[in-house]
Design brief:
Structural class: alpha+beta
Order of helices and strands: HEEEEHH
Helix content: 25-40%
Distance between the termini: 31 Å
Radius of gyration: 14 Å
Strand order of the largest sheet: 3-2-1-4
Number of helices: 3
Number of strands: 4
Amino acid sequence: MTLKELVKGKKVRFRFYRDGELWYATNDGFEFPVPIADTGTGIFQAEDGAIQYMRWIRKHLETRAEGKKNGGSRHAIFRRLHRRNCFLITCRRFGAPSDCLHPPGARTK
């Protein structure tokens, strides 16, 4: 999905806070972090226009693309993200193989 498709006429919703990052999701289900250190004195609402979050959506798209380019299968990317926010992700949702950090379908915390 392109950046334009993710932001044009779309909304983002706050999902959770973890390790100094606010995690948001677009209407399409694309999740991305907003580092607290990068927010300054800004006001971040629970729901807002995606165009205002384009900066962080772009950064996350680039991070994901770089991960895929550097030997990142879908599962390798999942494992890197999994370390940071596994408490909200179910392994089964991502179709992770049996060597995942948690048993299939497990939900932690």
